[in-house]
Design brief:
40% helix, single chain, 4 domains, Glucose Oxidase, domain 1, Topoisomerase I, Chain A, domain 4, alpha/beta, 673 residues
């Protein structure tokens, strides 16, 4: 069904051409709302237009007063010079950072400064107690901690003039801080109206260790540095590049890739931007040459400042959203897996956004990974690591896939990445072969959906049903396997309850996903109803088989009948959750991070403690919970759905998180029965 598309794409798409564009894009210092980003956007538009693809630049006000849905924008920023020197005892100086050499050596959005300051060393500086006995007023603090928290405690509350950051974020299991001793981590301030901006520099872990040891020497004077920053914040513009391959109707399929990030950042995300450019050129060429017919639906390409650009574009094109049937997001897709230690991942949309997209993109990928044949000629295998993972968010797909927006969007990404967000994310880490794999997959997925009608939707429906049967069988068998090692009746009873709950959740999701096929063809009503009944029947059969297996295990343990499992013990947080109903007041996800400064010091500290106390909970829990909030469900019901989707339940975190969102007026909380 899709193979003729894939074969045509494979003959046309060039991974080397995409890598050539990675090389060009990475030379621009692409900070959101900056001259460097604008130059990169202009290059993208020129490149596409020169190859016959219609492309335009949309400009949005970059000011503190600008807001799109719940997303506050910010001022444009530009820096021309920034240098940091350590003043040595013999009167000489050691250069620690030079913006001309390494743009990442400056904390982005730093404000001007010129002078000599004393260095105060902190371990992380995220707690009030870290400052006991320290005077940081008029000084610069050295920290490995979260700079936004350190900014509040050291700069706002205690009068420090700036921050030196020498941390490297761990990326388990392939990177600890000392694995890249000479790298600098991409670090940025995000200023809001009312903030008191400051400056800062990024040191490598090796430089930071040297400076920390120097400060610890009791017989030496306190370290001092000379800092010079020439920069400015001003009301400016933020750009989004769009390109359109016109179809025959006003419906659209969307490809997004964020164009931002510092100079020399290649895999993140010059790779995604470049693949999107080559994908647009490939499909446009194939259509213009008649090798593929003009599709029924248009294909829209967006190159955005990550997250903020997607908010801006969607909020100013709300009338177009109902015509957007599906999307795809490209983020960090070009990796040399041997160097970066990454795997090629398809991240599914959240389960609150059921759709046909996951089955399609997984099926196309399966053809791509079976290219090389075995020595006997029987079967094929991939030459790269790959997996399908559940939704985690963190990039532009999480805005589109929010049920309040309603555009189901998988993400293609390579993760983990040893060089993520560091000065070592360079061109030598980019593999044209992986760019080709991603481009072939993206182009085939986009064109199939753009041209899909009744025949394509019917095939896809059967594919979805087959995948549901596989996934449900696997889930139920996992419960049976666990049951065979269980020694107690109460545990078996809980498993019966879990099997019914999980199967019901999966069944409902699959039935809703098949209903989405009507977006591809209106002639699918009877077919969809038939598929949904098959899903119902198969679920009943599998749950019955699982219950029988658990009953047999109970009999083997001498238990004649499994008792009804007891209800969940209700603590204070569960009780509160049962009486709270969140109502969303904005389209799209909410990002409360930049609103923290509006709170009192006590409220800021409480928010910090909440995140720290629940650090072991998956960071996606609050996002997934927000997606399930429909104005009717209680937080208790939402917590149940989150647990079914993720396998994790943290009701206290969700209650406190939603109460915080209500406090900063991003949602409304009403009392339920």
């Amino acid at each position: 069904m899709f193979k003729p598309i894939l074969e045509a794409v494979q003959r046309e798409f060039s991974g080397q051409a995409a890598k050539d564009q990675v090389a060009i894009i990475s030379q621009y210092h692409r900070i959101q709302a900056s001259p460097g980003y604008r130059d990169a956007a202009t290059h993208c538009q020129w490149y596409l237009t020169a190859r016959g693809v219609s492309a335009v630049i949309h400009a949005f006000p970059a000011t503190n007063a600008t807001r799109y849905w719940s997303s506050n924008l910010f001022q444009e920023w530009d820096a021309s010079e920034a240098m940091l020197h350590l003043l040595k005892e013999d009167g000489t100086e050691e250069k620690l950072a030079d913006y001309r050499d390494t743009k990442i050596s400056l904390i982005q959005r730093s404000t001007p400064f010129d002078g000599e300051v004393e260095v105060v060393v902190l371990e992380d500086g995220e707690e009030e107690a870290d400052y006991d006995g320290l005077d940081v007023a008029g000084k610069i603090v050295l920290t490995r901690g979260d700079i936004h928290r350190v900014y509040q405690l050291a700069v706002v509350r205690r009068g420090a003039v700036g921050i030196l950051f020498d941390g490297i974020r761990a990326v388990p299991p392939i990177r600890e801080s000392l694995d890249l001793p000479d790298a600098r981590q991409y670090t940025s301030f995000w200023w809001s109206e009312g903030d008191r901006p400051c400056f800062g520099f990024v040191l490598s872990p090796r430089q930071g260790l040297h400076l920390r040891r120097r400060a610890a020497e009791k017989d030496k004077p306190v370290p001092r540095v000379r800092a010079h920053v020439q920069s400015r914040l001003y009301d400016g513009m933020l750009e989004v590049v769009s390109a359109l391959i016109e179809g025959e109707t006003d419906e659209e399929v969307i490809l997004t890739a964020h164009l931002c990030h510092p100079q020399h950042s290649c895999n993140d995300n010059a790779s995604g931007a470049a693949v999107a450019m080559e994908t647009a050129r490939t499909l446009n060429t194939l259509i213009q040459q008649g090798k593929l017919p003009r599709p029924k639906r248009s294909i829209l390409f967006l190159w955005v400042p990550e997250i903020t650009g997607t908010y801006a574009y969607l909020a100013t094109h709300e009338d177009d959203i109902p015509q957007m049937i599906a999307g795809l997001n490209l983020d960090m897709v070009g990796e040399n897996q041997d160097l970066c230690k990454s795997s090629f991942l398809i991240e599914q949309p959240p389960m609150s956004m059921p759709s046909f997209v996951s089955a399609l993109i997984e099926r196309v990928r399966e053809d791509l990974i079976s290219g090389p044949r075995s020595h006997s000629g029987m079967g094929g295998y991939p030459l790269f690591r790959h997996a399908v993972t559940p939704f985690t968010g963190g990039s532009d797909h999480y805005i589109l896939s929010d049920p309040s927006v309603g555009v189901p969007t998988p993400m293609l990404i390579q993760w983990p990445d040893k060089f993520y967000h560091t000065s070592e994310d360079t061109l030598d880490k980019v593999d044209p072969a992986m760019l080709t794999v991603v481009g072939d997959l993206a182009a085939t997925y986009l064109y199939f959906l753009a041209n899909a009608g009744t025949a394509e939707a019917t095939w896809l429906g059967y594919e979805m049903a087959a995948r549901y049967r596989r996934d449900l069988t696997k889930t139920m068998q996992a419960i049976i396997t666990e049951a065979m090692a269980t020694e107690t009746g109460p545990k078996l009873s809980e498993m019966v309850k879990r099997a019914h709950a999980r199967a019901g959740f999966m069944r409902h999701h699959a039935q809703q996903a098949t209903a989405s096929l009507t977006r591809l063809s209106q002639d699918m009503g009877n077919f969809v109803a038939g598929l949904q009944q098959r899903i119902e029947d198969f679920t009943t059969e599998e749950v019955g088989l699982t219950s029988e297996a658990l009953r047999r295990r109970g009999e083997a343990l001498g238990i004649s009948a499994l008792a009804e499992p007891s209800d969940r013990e209700e603590d204070t947080w569960e009780t509160r959750a049962r009486h709270l109903i969140p109502r969303r007041v904005y389209r799209g996800p909410v990002n409360p991070g930049r609103l923290i400064n509006r709170l009192s010091q006590e409220e800021q500290d409480a928010w910090h403690r909440l995140l720290k106390e629940h650090a072991e909970a998956p960071r996606v829990l609050p996002v997934v919970a927000l997606f399930w909030a429909d104005g009717q469900r209680t937080l208790s019901q939402i917590a149940e759905l989150v647990e079914l989707e993720t396998g994790h339940r943290d009701t206290e975190l969700l209650v406190r998180y939603f109460e915080f969102l209500a406090q900063v007026e991003l949602i409304e909380l009403k009392s339920g029965e």
